[in-house]
Amino acid sequence: VAELELIAAIERRLRARGDRVLRGPGDDAAVVRGGGIAVTSIDTVADGVHFRLSTHSPSDVGHKALGQALSDLAAMGARPGEAYVSLALPSGFGDAEALELVDGLEALAERSGVTVAGGDVVGAGALVVSVTVTGWAEDPAALAYRDGARPGDLVGVSGELGAAGAGLLLLDGLDCALDAGVREELVRRHLRPEPRLELGRALAGAGVSAMIDLSDGVATDAEHLSACSGASLEVRLPDLPLADGVTEVARSARREPYELAAASGDDYELLFTVSPDRREAVEEAASSAGAVLGWIGSVVAGDAAVLLDASGTALALGGFEHR
Amino acid sequence: VAELELIAAIERRLRARGDRVLRGPGDDAAVVRGGGIAVTSIDTVADGVHFRLSTHSPSDVGHKALGQALSDLAAMGARPGEAYVSLALPSGFGDAEALELVDGLEALAERSGVTVAGGDVVGAGALVVSVTVTGWAEDPAALAYRDGARPGDLVGVSGELGAAGAGLLLLDGLDCALDAGVREELVRRHLRPEPRLELGRALAGAGVSAMIDLSDGVATDAEHLSACSGASLEVRLPDLPLADGVTEVARSARREPYELAAASGDDYELLFTVSPDRREAVEEAASSAGAVLGWIGSVVAGDAAVLLDASGTALALGGFEHR
What angle do CA B276, B279, B284 make, to 5 degrees? Predict the structure, then answer.
């Protein structure tokens, strides 16, 4: 029954947002006024795989679990709505840590306008946090999917890449001389990825032809878009926008900066394709959402992603797959 | 990338049901045509806590994970819709076992008219399966909640109790002479609980005042209804309908049969309250759903559940709490 007390303590920390949630936690199920089209994704993070309690605070874990799930809604261009959170807690993870985890998750929920409308807390042999998020849209045609890339489209990406991968290397103890602020930002990008919700809605509204969030890295995620679309995303690696410090970290790790940026995941930026005649509209939409875009390639006939180096030579994709 | 192949193999085993799911697995999120009111619950089972791989087949685990989640929709009286499944798999749990788990889950989904519309597969230190289910209703007033029990209401329960608890004792090696068919049925009730979806809709439609599914056992779940309703469910333990073999198993375990039935969870029958003037309508609804009801108590003023023994003496609730 300690579990019931923990659940009650968690419920006291959660706030409803908006007026869609008719019943939140505390009944057999949440009751939500549906708003047209429901867009739903489930995402799970596990200790030792997606995070390590030795480097991530419980609050970081809560942030990351929700952030990763919300990033899928960003990639669809959906308006975020509700989250449902399952905490599988090992015996060494105390109630105080569980509440800290919930606080980290709830803080991101608040900034994102999301209501945590339900959850489950169970004992388990390992810390595993599973989050289901539901977003809402008026019309399925207003969403962005993975299968709409067409030859002739441009390939774009938001923000700067490689930060989360570089941050992980630094957390792993890589020796690299860096400005303290740059180092802190790289580590933060790994610990607390930010879902690009506003940008995703702006890009979907501006008519991108396909979109995905960068959870696995440009190499793997470009391959997903290519396979789903039946077209080939050609990505010019030297055109990848790199976050500050990624070049230095990559050199310290004896890796090519663009390879690090393309192969490492967890940046949670958005990769998309768009017809050239919508490029300007997409740039305006991104700008109004406060984001910078990079143009990193084009779509050609084919069915697999192609990565081009500085000389225009296609590189083997295998070496870039998410580790 | 073995993970991606496993995900592809899983997706090939899943079938869409009905026409609500516009996009199932394979994109960033599922896209579903909302049908009025969304009713959503997340439930998690973990190895060593809710099941043991030494006694549960992977298929049993898949069934149980979905069945337990769907039982929450039954308790609301919602029409089941979609399921989103997270599999956190330890290194010793192979792809063949994962697919067997999915097959067990998908078989129950098929019988229940549910579409598995999305999922996630990750590595983890322990087998943890988390399932989010969404059901749909026309009107929130047509659902049954935990907070509607009022003094004067009758307390009813569906089916026969104690089977899952007795089955667990048998799986744990309890020595008890039983007819082979009775033993098998008790074990099956523990391994493969059946969500009472049709019955839940029938009872909600017939106007029960409050309802909950028996996941923790009558003692704890009556307490939930009491606390949520601000009323006291008085349950007459000797009136609990016992499943065949529960008396024999309880005696072999040196426990009182009604105590076993009230304290052990996982029966996933429905506990409800109803105004006496609706008793007949509720009985007819249950009968049309193929279920038998037991009348086990009444609601009085108060705020906590009360368990009465054969002499009408109130027993301490503590001893009945879900272990």
Answer: 170
Beta carbons of B191 and B56 less than 8 angstroms apart: yes
Mutate to test the interface with A, among B11, B22, B70, B128 (most CBs of A within 10 A): B128
Nearest to A130 among B27, B29, B44 (CB): B44
Rounded-to-integer distance, Cα A3 and Cα B49, Å:
13
Token pair, residue B80, equals 């089941």
Q: Which among A31, A45, A123 has CB closest to B140?
A: A31
Residue pair B315/B259 in contact by the 8 Å Cβ criterion:
no
From B73, B125, B136, residue closest to A48, measured CB to CB: B125
Contact A41 B29 (CB under 8 A): yes
Q: Residues B231, B237: contact at Cβ < 8 Å? A: no
pLDDT digits (tens, 9 = 90+) for A102-153: 999 999 999 999 999 999 999 999 999 999 999 999 999 999 999 999 999 9
CA of B90 to nearest chain A CA: how many angstroms apart?
A: 10
Tally Cβ neighbours within 10 Å of residue B289. 18
Minimal Cβ distance to B124: which of A49, A73, A212 = A49
Q: How confident is the model at residue B323 (pLDDT cuts 50, 70, 90)?
A: very low
Cα angle vertex B313, ends B308, B318, to 5°?
A: 65
Residue to substitute from B132, B212, B228, interface A, most A β-carbons within 10 A:
B132
Report, as an integer, the average pLDDT of B128-144: 95
Yes or no, beta carbons of A42 and B72 under 8 Å apart: no
Residue A2: HSE in the Cβ half-sphere, 13 Å Cα cutoff? 8
CA neighbor of B282 nearest in space, from B177, B201, B171, B224: B201
Distance CA B135, CA A141 (A): 24
Q: Which residues of A touch B124 (CB under 8 A)?
A: 44, 46-49, 126, 128
CA distance A318 to A263: 10
pLDDT tens, residue by residue, A257-312: 999 999 998 999 999 999 999 999 999 999 999 999 999 999 999 999 999 999 99
CA atoms within 13 A on the CB side of A63: 18
Residues of chain B with C-beta less than 8 angstroms from the C-beta of A137: 31
pTM over 0.90: yes
**Chain A interface, best mutation among B5, B20, B27, B71, by max A CB count within 10 A:** B27
For residue B2, pLDDT over 80 is answered with no
Closest CA to B320 of B236, B220, B191: B220
Place of tokens 């749909």: B136
Give B321's contacts in chain A (Cβ within 8 Å).
1
Taking CA atoms, A88 is separated from A12, A101, B128, in Å, by: 19, 12, 8
**Per-residue pLDDT reduced to its tens digit, A177-223:** 999 999 999 999 999 999 999 999 999 999 999 999 999 999 999 99
Inter-chain CB proximity B45 and A122 less than 8 Å: yes
CA A66, A70, A71: angle at the middle one, nearest 5? Answer: 120
Distance separating alpha carbons of residues A83 and A129, to the nearest angstrom? 12
| CA atoms of B46 and B68, how far apart (whole Å) | 13
Give the closest of B33, B42, B133 to A86, CB-based.
Answer: B42
Q: Are B148 and B51 in contact (CB under 8 A)?
A: no
**Mean pLDDT of all residues in B75-90:** 96
Residue B227's closest chain A neighbor by CA?
Answer: A26
> Which residues, including other chains, have CB under 8 Å from residue A51's CB and lie 6 or more apart?
A45, A60, A61, A64
